Amino acid sequence: MQGLAAGGTTLRQRLCALALAAALPVALASCSSGLNGMSYRLGQPLANQGDSPAGAFLAGRFAQSQNDPTVAAHYLLEALAADPENVELLQRSLQALADDGKLAEAETVARQLLRFDPDAALAALLVAEQDARDGHWSEARDQVAKLPRRGLNAVMVPLITAWSYMGEDRVDEALAALEPLRRSAAYEPLRLFHSALINDLADRRAAASRDYQALSGNTMRLALRSVEAATAFYRRTGQADKAQDLLRRYALDHPETAAILSDTQRGRVVNSAKAGLAEAYFSGAVTLRQSEANDLALIFGHMALALQPDLPSCQAMVADLLQDMGRLGEANAIFAKIQPTAAAYPTARLRIALNLDSMGDTDGAVAELKRLAQIPAVKLDALSTLGDILRSHHRWIEAASAYSQAIALFPAPERNQWSFYYSRGIAYERAGQWPLAEADLLKALDLMPDEPHVLNYLGYSWIDKGMHLERAQRMIEKAVEQLPNDGDIVDSLGWAYYRTGHYAKAVATLQKAVELHPEEATINHHLGDALWATGRHEEARYQWQRALVFKPDADEKAVLEQELAHGGTLPAPLKAGKTDD
């Protein structure tokens, strides 16, 4: 079967790279839970679920399971009003409010929760953030001082304590507060990073330089945020050679993320104690995300942005988390706040376009991508993404035009162009312009020999058109050798066997394809045709009925209905002829 996937840009990888910070091996499980088996629409309260405190509680839990904190908070607060000392309700209400970014309301619930559970870490960290935001540094310090030093607390307590001292201009106490992090080698990069920020903010340049030097020794494990801070410090303090050396070494180990680093930033990444504390909460957010505790990572991200709203790396991470949760409108609202001067800006705008398309606003997505295509730094990605979106909506000629513009950006042919020729070839083939499609697919193979998706698409197309049968079958077999668990490619091989009259082999191969990709209409359809050809008519009808369940396009649906009504047909097997190589 011909797939529509194409190679090209890796937007998710590059955006996620913007959210990297010092890695810590701390796992914290997400505390969300859910109820199954109920239909639900995001943002809409459940009918008749809030008629009693118990009903409100269940509705709130279910809304949390559906990643809808707004509705969850509505119902959980309703239940909490009837039972204000219920610790579980307090915990769930706190999480829902904080997840929704309503930190002021969450703080009220957090203070209530701490009355009954002084060890409630999330509540204490939230209250500490609010106290610090209000300039009440000693109160923030006191909040976390009570927490047991385990799990993420072992990291967050020293960081919050250190920055609370910096809020009072007590530099030595701030540095001393970081000392507990020395107990674990895994925490040392984080200690050095925050020590460097503190020394830099205090104008202790020699100490900051030593910290950055120690931090940047192992670039393989170095966080992107640390590179940003160190290179900016070096440029600002007349050590441009060190900045360039660090960028060079980092690029060798992290070529994908190094491309988004600014080579001109000179200002401090932290200009105040609040900004430093934001970095601490952001570090916690990244740690939680690495532990796949995404609900809590989002909350920590919200707390970081409450302290430092224009922290692009954190904005990118929060938006990415929201997108992963299906909260696309909220994600776009955060992406839109990233300033044009930030390295994350172009990729954030690309993600906005993708989300607009996912939300049904394809015209808005196309307009955004055409605007982005005017920016040289992101022009290639914008055109590639534009082509992909147009192709997904069967706007074949427009898609081909976008890919043509992308190809024209390359001064000379190179391997990286293969995906654009492949994608344009698909668009031309679907538009019925086979000579142009064939030329592009052959060009893609010339640039990337034996690429399995190109082998599959071109081989399938030739088989379908009765062309180059032997070569086409060899190409598909080679694709299957490389990707034996790709149902679409295995389907192509089965269809090749069917079209050339090898029906038993076709059935066996297509059965494997269905096992690999059971909910694909075309693969089930093909298996039905092969079964019919071997005389297994009842099984064939069953597969055709299954194919209809999986929503084929209009043309294929019509063929399936015809076959179910009147039986299948058995086309004459294709034979190798003069067009074979």
Please characterize this protein's 3D structure.
With about 575 residues, the chain is mainly α. Among the domains are: about 120 residues, Tetratricopeptide repeat domain (Serine Threonine Protein Phosphatase 5, Tetratricopeptide repeat, Alpha Horseshoe), CATH 1.25.40.10; about 130 residues, Tetratricopeptide repeat domain (Serine Threonine Protein Phosphatase 5, Tetratricopeptide repeat), CATH 1.25.40. It is about 65% helix and about 0% strand. The protein has 31 helices and no strands. The longest helix has 18 residues. The chain is globular, with a radius of gyration of 29 Å. The C terminus is likely disordered. One of its GO terms (molecular function) is peptidase activity. This is Beta-barrel assembly-enhancing protease. Pfam families: TPR_16. InterPro entries: TPR-like_helical_dom_sf, TPR_rpt.
CATH class descriptor of the domain at 451-581: Mainly Alpha
User: How is the CATH topology of the domain at 451-581 named?
Assistant: Serine Threonine Protein Phosphatase 5, Tetratricopeptide repeat
The proportion of residues in beta strands is under 5%
**Outline type:** globular
Q: Ends: how far apart?
A: 22 Å
Number of strands: 0
Helicity level: 55-70%
Specify the number of helices.
Answer: 31
Instruction: Profile the largest sheet.
Output: none
How would you state the average pLDDT, rounded? 89
Computed over alpha carbons, the radius of gyration is 29 Å
Write the CATH homologous superfamily of the domain at 451-581. Tetratricopeptide repeat domain
Secondary structural class: mainly alpha
Can you tell me the residue ranges where pLDDT is under 50 for at least 5 consecutive residues?
5-50, 577-581
Pfam family, one: TPR_16
Organism: mine drainage metagenome
Keywords: Hydrolase, Protease
InterPro entries: TPR-like_helical_dom_sf (IPR011990), TPR_rpt (IPR019734)
